[in-house]
Design goal:
By secondary structure, the protein is of the alpha/beta class. It has 17 helices and 24 strands. The chain has a 20-stranded mixed sheet that branches. A two-stranded parallel sheet has the order 6-8. It has a two-stranded parallel ribbon with strand order 14-17. The N terminus and C terminus are likely disordered. This is F-box domain-containing protein.
Length: 544
């Protein structure tokens, strides 16, 4: 529906809330889902005038009409959920994607705009301290805040108006469900205890860059407060995760569905991991574990219990020693996604539980059929021997999604061993060329480019390789060396029958490739820019 031209003699009267929303709104990042408009406030220099309203109406007519209707009805809360990123800084090129605090104080809270998501951006020794008065005002405002991110705030003022407990009314953050924190937050134990107790319904907690002292305070607070609703716990870049931390989490008796423990240093004791996994094994659905030991000690074992509901497993520090040993999948009967991250070259052997005898060879084959998504480490040197990769792909021949760093030899294994692939990502550090993309498959002949009728070895292998992936819908290529050119597009990618989306990063392609792939969504990432080309309406793709 095309909007009518707005030139009425009576100008539209806007409330101060709408004025600041339009004034500080970046239309490029504005997204609308029916009548709910999530606005990312910025310090852009967009002028507030009639043309801005017309542009807004052209792009988001449903939201525009909903706003006008709410004004006429005199609604207290506008049908707008604002995602705010606050910063103590004013207008600056370095912080133009954040909203200064004074805008929030002057325009947002006094008029009762509903806030769903709030993120504080403050990262230096001068302005890095969280504004206590503003923070207290946020807690007092009936904004029904659901997500709070203070992961970029190194210091917190403990003298907040609402701290310490008790509160006269209900906890101020009783609607909060998601919390993201900085793991080296400079605060007192009392502040952290009272802060977490203000959110009794939080079920998703992420702590980044955990120091030892903060982890001590955080794990003890989990137990003392009794946050029984926490189902997703992510501890990223932990310095040391020891038995005392484990004991506190065990006492909290959390029924976790997600557990991420990503540790920076080498693990010397595995008892904490074993006890933690044993406790959460019945309910765990998503796990990220650090399994690392010293290269000089290869006899370490980690006993992992049966996890009947585990669907996603991410392993860090997984390398040469345990890479091809996939027996642990047999006691994860629901596993669908396995991500093996590159964080080291050696890993301990996963020791099967006592119930290992209940798995027969027939059950093992059925379990392997359930794994649909596999991500292998970004270490090309590990895959120079194609037999190792071939062994993995043949074992998991029902994969729908595969991510790996590869060379040309590895891609040949992918083309021949994974016929069910729907998504293929050739990740960074890949050493691939046109030979690898087009597929080195022998026994196929066609006319060369000159049309002489002679057999061309370079051209004849082209089509057969990629056409083996008849179900491929999404392809992402990171041409690390820049040796992927128009040749791969012409003789390989254009012949994939069900391809819907292609992303090319660091590839040397011309306008010809863009025209040839005009029937699908194409994203080209160069060194300095990102271009996305939507499909053009046409009967069939162009083959030149």
């Amino acid at each position: 529906m095309k909007p009518e031209k707005i030139d009425d003699p009576h100008p539209l009267m806007l409330t101060p809330v709408l004025e600041v929303l339009f004034k500080h709104c970046d239309f490029k990042t504005l997204k609308t889902v029916r009548n709910v408009c999530k606005v990312w406030l910025t310090e852009s220099s967009l002028a507030f005038n009639r043309s801005s309203l017309i542009n807004f109406f052209n792009m988001y007519p449903d939201t525009y009409l909903a706003i006008i209707k709410s004004i006429k009805d005199g609604s207290t809360f506008l049908p707008i959920n604002v995602a705010l990123t606050l910063s103590p800084y004013g207008e600056s090129d370095s912080y133009r994607n954040v909203c200064p605090w004074h805008v929030c104080e002057e325009y947002i809270f006094p008029f009762g705009v509903s806030i769903e998501s709030l993120k504080f951006y403050a990262w230096d020794s001068v302005s890095g301290r969280l504004n206590a008065a503003l923070f207290g005002q946020i807690l007092l405002t009936p904004c029904r805040l659901k997500s709070l991110d203070i992961s970029l705030v190194p210091k917190v003022v403990s003298r907040c108006p609402l701290f310490p407990r008790p509160w006269n009314l209900q906890p101020p953050l009783r609607f909060l469900t998601t919390l993201v924190m900085y793991g080296k937050l400079e605060c007192t134990r009392e502040f952290l205890h009272n802060f977490l107790s203000a959110m009794p319904n939080v079920n998703n907690i992420t702590v980044n860059c955990c120091s030892i002292n903060f982890l001590d305070m955080f794990t003890s607070a989990l137990y003392e407060i009794g946050l029984r609703n926490v189902r997703h716990l992510k501890l990223n870049f932990v310095q040391v995760f020891n038995d005392s931390h484990m004991a506190q989490i065990e006492k909290a008796n959390l029924q976790l569905k997600t557990l991420h423990v990503a540790q920076r240093s080498v693990i010397r004791k595995f008892h904490a991991y074993e006890h933690l996994l044993a406790q959460v094994a019945p309910t765990l659905e998503d796990a990220k574990l650090t399994c690392c030991t010293r290269p000089t000690n290869h006899e370490q074992y980690i006993t992992i219990p049966i996890m009947p509901k585990l669907k996603v497993l991410r392993l860090q520090c997984w390398g040469i020693l345990g890479l091809w040993n996939f027996e642990f999948i047999n006691f994860m009967p629901s596993l669908e996604t396995l991500v093996m991250e590159r964080r080291g070259l050696f890993a301990p052997i996963l020791h099967p539980p006592d119930q290992w005898h209940c798995f027969t060879e027939e059950n093992e084959i059925k379990l392997h059929e359930k794994l649909k998504n596999l991500t292998l480490p970004s270490i090309p040197l590990l895959f120079l021997h194609e037999n190792s990769l071939r062994h993995i792909l043949l074992r998991f021949s029902f994969l729908n999604k595969l991510t790996l760093s590869a060379n040309d030899v590895c891609l040949e294994c992918v083309f021949t061993c994974s016929p069910q692939l729907e998504e293929l990502t050739i990740a960074e550090y890949s050493r691939i060329t046109d030979d690898g993309i087009t597929g080195l498959v022998s026994g196929f002949q066609q006319l060369d480019e000159t049309g002489s009728g002679e057999s061309s070895t370079y051209d004849c292998n082209v089509k057969a390789g990629l056409t083996a992936l008849q179900k491929l819908k999404k392809l992402e290529i990171d041409g690390f060396w820049g040796k992927v050119t128009d040749f791969s597009i012409k003789h390989g990618i254009c012949h994939l029958p069900k391809l819907e989306s292609v992303m090319l990063r660091g590839c040397k392609i011309s306008d010809w490739s863009i025209r040839a792939l005009s029937s699908i969504q194409l994203t080209v990432v160069g060194h300095d820019s990102l271009h996305t080309f939507e499909p053009e309406p046409m009967d069939e793709p162009i083959y030149l």
